[in-house]
Amino acid sequence: MPGHDPEGHDPGTPEYDHPTGGWGSLRGVARIFGEERSRPMALKVLASLNRPKGVMCSSCAWAKPAKPHRFEFCENGAKATLWELTPKRADPDFFAAHSVEDLRGWHDHDLEGAGRLTHPMRYNPVSGHYEQGGWEEAFAEIGRELAAMPPERAVFYASGHAGLEAAYLYALFARAMGHQNLPQSSNMCHETTSVNLLQTIGTPVGTCTLEDFETCDAIFFFGQNTGSNSPRFLHVLQEAVKRGCRVVTFNPLRERGLIEFVNPQDALQMATNRATQISEHYFQLRPGGDVAVMAGMMKCVLAAEAARPGEVLDAGFLSAHTTGFEETRRAVEAFGWAEIEAASGLSRAMIETAAEVYMGAERVIGIYGMGLTQHVHGWLNLGMLVNLLLMRGNIGRPGTGISPVRGHSNVQGQRTVGVGEKSAHMPADRLRALFGITPPEAEGMNAVHAMQGLLEGRVDAVLSLGGNLLRALPDRERVEAAWPGLRLSVHVATKPNRSHLFPGQVSWILPCLGRTDEDIQATGPQASSMEDTFSHIYGSIGQASPPSEQVRSEVAIVAGIAAATLPADPRMPWAEWVANYDRIRDLIEATFPEDFARFNERLHQPGGFYRGNPARERVWKTESGRAEFTVPPGLSALGQAPEGAEMTLITLRSNDQFNTTIYGFSDRLRGLEGGRDIVLISPAEMARLGLAEGQRVTLRTALQDGIRREVAGLRLVGYDLPGACVAGYYPELNPLVPLDYHEERSQTPAYKGVPVTILAA
Ligand SMILES: Nc1nc2c(c(=O)[nH]1)N[C@H]1C(S)=C(S)[C@@H](COP(=O)(O)OP(=O)(O)OC[C@H]3O[C@@H](n4cnc5c(=O)[nH]c(N)nc54)[C@H](O)[C@@H]3O)O[C@H]1N2
Ligand SMILES: Nc1nc2c(c(=O)[nH]1)N[C@H]1C(S)=C(S)[C@@H](COP(=O)(O)OP(=O)(O)OC[C@H]3O[C@@H](n4cnc5c(=O)[nH]c(N)nc54)[C@H](O)[C@@H]3O)O[C@H]1N2
Ligand SMILES: [Mo]
Questions:
Q1: What DSSP state is assigned to residue 415?
Q2: 531 — phi, psi (to 5°)?
Q3: Over the stretch 51-61, which tens digit does the pLDDT of each residue have?
Q4: Nearest one of 127, 124, 171 to 463, comparing CA atoms
Q5: Rounded to the nearest whole angstrom, what is the distance from the C-alpha of residue 410 to the centroid of ligand 3?
Q6: DSSP characters for 637-672?
Q7: pTM above 0.85, yes or no
Q8: Per-residue pLDDT at 275
Q9: From the CB of 556, is ligand 2 less than 6 Å away?
């Protein structure tokens, strides 16, 4: 097993008590450059990141501006890029040297650290090793297996990396085969957004674009960690703050990036180390307390309107464009301040301060991330944010809107081109007209449903287009135990990870090109494309030489499997599509004409092309034809905590990971170095519970469903957190999250609000 010391201080990373950005982030990049022994190719790719005809960063889904900065990438984008460009190889010799059993003992960091996959690998149950196989053999065997099973027993998962072209073919393949079991990483992420914004404002995505940040007067942040997870956004925020925009943040943790920021590309700021303060007010609410905060703010707005009738609410907008306001108003007014303070963990005065900023602003944007979506009542979080914004007409005007910050670089786009379990995700009439396919009417399985299906023996095959489901999902131990019962498991991946180590009876790892790699097909170099969090679409052209001649593009792999599974049909010429991706983009345009008009022509337009959003134009594609208020039945986003649950667990990302990819062991922006097996808790709570800093503890899930869920050997670390709450890292703590414990309407796992108890070891 490779020898890193997970407890040790990471020598390349300085102690951190400074603002986000600045020298710390430059040192973070320098460390990676050093580790990768930076090569000219790496520098070339970095220089092209997020520029027209360059490589679109594979880290987050933040916008690529039409006028990029000198370096349009951040520390974490550089990490993601260099991680993919590693010279290390997980080649057939690597798999010959290490059995699957052996690799199961490795840390996630070391598994991916083995480097890029180079050859198709087939699991041999006799030797217990993955062994080199050929592409034709792989396609033929996978095709034979899939064709032999009832289509509804196959699951096609996609992590949000792959471009629109591969994603479209994948979604088409599933429906041509006869199922729409197309779970996606968004099922663990912003599905709460897709389901609930669609219901309330008639669009599954946010309404803002980058320009709105140039004119908004106030920004309210709920549960999004900009400094680590979308750092290029900090430049936009800094500009906004400098021109007088006010920022108010709600987060149980004091996340550095939202406190202050030194722009590493600003020579003067770097020379003087003078930071821009980002949040004017930063409120450390209780997890799940956002509903109460927003109810309190709404009460303040209603009280102000009562005192100054006609001056505070946007009455014209409310009557012309919304429904449900009166009922919502009554529900909000019925909540008392004492219960609001208890549920939010904030004082009335704090909430009034926030409401003053809200009412003082002509144009307001509401931003959010996993802090709102990954809760049992996530729908109520989103409903309340929409409510708050609607009261003063803050949706569908320049400088206003609701803005979910999406995760993976193409997670939103994959959904746009049909990766999703619902018939509505790919229009049936178009599928019929273009390909003669009659797609299934029955809804397919999302991520939680697919894993329930696996546990109940209703799933025979899982194909994964990227990702690391076994680490990303809740209830890891149960799912790992069930996975080898699959007839077929196929992973299309760039690097080895833990999900590859629980092979089904027939199991393949298929190595694919990454975003940074040159993709050359029969008609020459190909571009792929992706959609950002603001619904802008960009082409991306890989530049690096692929890790081996054997590695194929995701488009080629999906098409190869599809051609081997489905009967030949001249309307689906898979090989011709692979030869020229322009043809796939033409099909995307033909299937989704409203979103992708003149797709090929506009592919490399600076700043991307915008596919539009009806709610932005105040056209509400909801059931009522209006923007819908959500009547709050209660004040917390948390599920019912059982008797004896002392704490709510929040699972977090560090600044040194991309989801299940662990780059290192430093969480610089939180001042946490070394190990990831930790539990953060406030010193006051530690004292109250008779626990001590550094003590080893076990966390146990406090939900009683007959299954014991525990993670042992965690080290207690005193940290600035509200009471009755602990925090620790994803994915290490995923065994504590029950699969059935999810957002009520979208089944997004409630990763930010699990009731737990702490057991002293
Ligand atoms: N470098 C890097 N970038 C990434 C990723 C990565 O892992 N690394 N992941 C990508 C992906 S897939 C996604 S989805 C995004 C995720 O990006 P984010 O949406 O920022 O997700 P998290 O880091 O999980 O948590 C967000 C914040 O929610 C806060 N929080 C927890 N519970 C609550 C609550 O009840 N209320 C409020 N108000 N706040 C709460 C936490 O303290 C944390 O600061 O980032 C993307 N970008
Ligand atoms: N407890 C807890 N659990 C969580 C979360 C949380 O906040 N808390 N967050 C959830 C969220 S928001 C998400 S999005 C999921 C993420 O879940 P996933 O998307 O399934 O996981 P990732 O870690 O992003 O996937 C990493 C793997 O993708 C592969 N990969 C990387 N680049 C490429 C590529 O270009 N092509 C292909 N084919 N493969 C590639 C590599 O093999 C790598 O090992 O996790 C969820 N799980
Ligand atoms: Mo995500």
A1: H
A2: -115, 135
A3: 999 999 999 99
A4: 171
A5: 11
A6: SSPPPPTT--EEEEEE--TTEETTEE--SEEGGGTE
A7: yes
A8: 83
A9: no
* Same-domain status, 372 and 456: no
User: Same structural domain for residues 583 and 516?
Assistant: yes
The 10s digit of each residue's pLDDT in 369-418 is 999 999 999 999 999 999 999 999 999 999 999 999 999 999 999 999 99
> How many whole angstroms separate alpha carbon 176 and alpha carbon 163?
20
Residues 198 and 179 occupy one common structural domain: no
Number of domains the chain contains: 4
Banded pLDDT at 37 (limits 50, 70, 90):
low
530 belongs to a structural domain: yes
Tens digit of pLDDT for each residue in 266-319? 777 777 777 889 999 999 999 999 999 999 999 999 999 999 999 999 999 999
How far is the centre of ligand 3, averaged over its atoms, from the C-alpha of 6 (Å)? 25
Q: Does one domain contain both 317 and 297?
A: yes
Of 188, 409, 746, which is best to mutate to test ligand 2, by the most ligand atoms within 8 angstroms of its C-beta? Answer: 188
Q: How far is the CA of 223 from the centre of ligand 1 (A)?
A: 7
**Where a domain ends, among 615, 637, 667?**
615
What would the pLDDT profile of 496-524 be if each residue is shown by its tens digit? 999 999 999 999 999 999 999 999 999 99
Ligand 2 and 661: CB distance under 6 A: yes
Q: What is the CATH number of the domain that holds 225?
A: 3.40.228.10
668 lines ligand 1 (CB under 6 A): no
Helix axis angle, 164-177 to 554-565, nearest 10°:
10
264 shares its domain with 158:
no
> Rounded to whole angstroms, how far apart are CA atoms 535 and 340?
35
**Co-location of 231 and 339 in the same domain:** yes
Residues 436 and 577 in one domain: yes
Distance 415 CA to ligand 3 centre (A): 13
pLDDT tens for 47-84 read 899 999 999 999 999 999 999 887 788 888 988 998 99
Q: How confident is the model at residue 30 (pLDDT cuts 50, 70, 90)?
A: low
What is the chain's mean pLDDT, rounded?
93
98 CA distance to ligand 3 middle (Å):
31
Q: What range does the domain containing 744 cover?
A: 647-760
Query: How large is the C-alpha radius of gyration of the chain?
Result: 25
Q: Is the pLDDT of residue 1 over 80?
A: no
* Angle, CA 414 vertex, CA 409 and CA 418 arms, to 5°: 170
Distance in angstroms (rounded) separating the CA atoms of residues 559 and 566: 10
- Is residue 191 within 6 Å of ligand 1 at its C-beta? no
Q: Phi first, then psi: give them for residue 736, nearest 5 degrees.
A: -85, -15
